[in-house]
Every structure is written in C-alpha cells, then in structure tokens.
Amino acid sequence: MTFIRNIIISFIIVFLAGCYPESNILPEESDTVYTNAHPDANFHNYKYYQLADSVLRINDYGETIVIRGTYDQLVIDRVAENLNANGFVRVTDKDTITADVDVFISDLSSITITQFWNYIPYWYYTGLNSYNSETAYAYFPLGFPTSQLIALRSNIIVDMVDHEAVIIDNQTTYPVYWRAVTTGVYNNNMYSRLVRNIDQMFFQSPYLKASK
Amino acid sequence: MKRYTIMIGIILFLLNGPKAQNDSIISLKKSINKDISLDLSWSTAVPMGDMTEQVKITSGRGVQFGLSQNINDRFSYGGSFAWQMFFNKSYEMYINNASVLTGWKRDYINAFMLLGTGKYYFSTSVNKIKAYLSIEMGASIIENYQIFGINEYKELEWHFALNPSVGLEIPASKNLGFYLYIKYPNSFSNNSSFHYSWINSGIGVYLKIPD
Lengths: 212, 211
Hints:
By secondary structure, chain A is α/β, with parallel strands linked by helices. Helix content of chain A is 21%, strand content 28%.
C-alpha cells in the first residue's frame, strides 16, 4: 500500500514539474523596463539638464517620505552617466546656463501602484512633489493580468520634464517629455540589476539624443 | 499403382477436410474480431496557427492513453486522454508608437483532452503492419499561463476538440506492438480564447487483449 502511495505521489510530482518547467523565477527575471516619449517632445532641442540630487519617495497619500535608500546614489549617477553619454550636459543652480529640462528620479516601491501591461499610468507633475494621473494607453499584445507575483518590489521611475512650467486648468504643470519605469521583485542584490535596467531605459530610447 | 495414387489422394482429401473447416472458423472469428486494445504513447508537438504568436518552440512533453475495441477487422471505437504541454521563455520587446516595454516572458500552455475515438484500418498490410485513419472528437481544457515581469495572466477554458490522424500499427508479437502516428489536434476558439492547434507526431506501444 505504501509502495503504491509513493508511486502515486512520485507521479504527481513528476507531472506537476512537467506542467511548469523552470517555474523558479529569479528576481532579475521579473524585471521589466518601460519607456515612453511624449509625442510633442523634440529632444534635439534640449541640451542642458538639471538632475535632482535625491530620489523622491511618496506614500499612498502622496506625501513625501524623506529617507535615503541604499541604491539612490547609484541610480542618480547611472542616469547622469547615460544622459551625458547621449550628449546632454548637467547644470546646477550655480551655473549661469539655464537648464532646458529637469530630470527627476522617483522610487515608488513602497506605494500601492496599479501598473498593467496595457495601461501604464502616465503622470504629469503639478508642483514638484506631487503627481496627477493622466490617462495614457500603450497597447501591447499581452493579456490583461489576472494577478501579480506576491513579493516586495522595486519600482524606479525616471522623468524628464520641461524646465519651464505651463499652466493647465489653472494648475502649474511640468509636462513629462520622457518617462522610464523599471519594476521587479526586490532583493538584497539590486546593484547589477539597477545598472542593467537603467542602461536598458536609454538603449530602448534611441531618440534621446541632445542637440549638438 | 494407379489405385494406390487414388487412395492416397482420398486420404489426403479427408485429412485436409477438418483443417479447411478449422481455417474457415478462424477466418470467421477474425472477421468479427472484438479485441480490446490499450495504448500509451509519447508525443511531440509543433504549434500551428494562432498559437505560433505565443509559442514557437516544439514541445516534447506529451502523453496519450487510449482504450479501444474492435467492431471488426476494419473499425474500432474507444476513448483517449491526452496531455500536451508547451513552454516558451524569451526576452521580449513590445513597441507601440513611442512606448516600449521589455522583459522576460514565460508562456505555459497545458492542454488536456478527453476524446472519443473512431479508427479505420486499411485492408492492405505488409508484414502485418496496418495503416489506419482515425478521428477523435471531444473536449479539451487548456490552461494558458503567462508571466511577464511581476504580472501573471491565467486563462482556463474548455474547447470543442477535433483531432484527425493517420498512423501505423506494427505488431511485435501476437498481443503486443508499436504504433506511430501523426495527428492534427484542434481546440476550437470560444468566446474568450483563440483556436489552439498543433501537429503531433508520436510513438507508442499497444496491448491487445483478445476477446
């Protein structure tokens, strides 16, 4: 009887393994990189950029969280390296040259965010520390997700916005010209993953070249 | 001498009589052959049609079981159960206007089929190898499971299934043999799912249990 039971259990294990091969997903295999350029943006008109020296974090209520993450400096430096490699020049408030665009890096890992395959929330700034949602759709040939992997996640967003604010509906707004999002399961070794994913943001945005 | 020759002829005729009668009984039995047959096979599958947009890799994970009974030498009927699994893992890049999305995508398609089978054996055979045509009809339940990044998509749908096939039965002994087949399983689209189809090629063993 025990023998038959072992046979049945072995059969079930082999069968389930056969149904889902390679089901052990490595954290780096959960990484995705999404980029979007605003149709009105002409990157050849921009050259000088300001890059915030800290990473923005907000909670579910949109309030700013002031903590410094382990990988903040890495992310800031890597974004700057890629922008510089594409011909952009970083300026600060101390410089006499006025920036054409501002670059903000946000870490939204700690908030509840709905980011589906075919619907990517596309925010624009109203003020520098708050988000407003704008409807934007990207139609990818993927089904609507029925669930998400349950794990801590990393969600880094890089935005290139106009340096000059515009008034839309009586609100001060900074239009987003370029947005890049990398999302994945968080683990203790994010260093190489963040480097690779930030590089991927620029690799899949070949239009992002500064004016000469 | 002539008389002896006639007598030997008569004796041989008489001896051959019961044998000829015996042969005719066997051939009559054969004509109403109602053997029960069990079969088990391993199958590979090449995705076709709409499926190729999701998986392109040939599957080597497939098993089919069958149970059938002959009506006569030409026809048999029965039922079968089949499982075929498709797996694809690739780094994908999706582009939509100015939006680009990249990441690892896993696709799992598990198809389970429960079918009624009708089989027609061709009369001609070489070295007792028998060719057949068969048609299987029934239901399939297909799980389509995709993982992209941290998102999962799972669909589990019933389909109407129709599988035509051709094959060869190669007897190894009186009750045991091998068989080869090529099959074209179809699971027709329903409201929310597309039409799944693939080409199966399989090899298996069969066991005939005499009636």
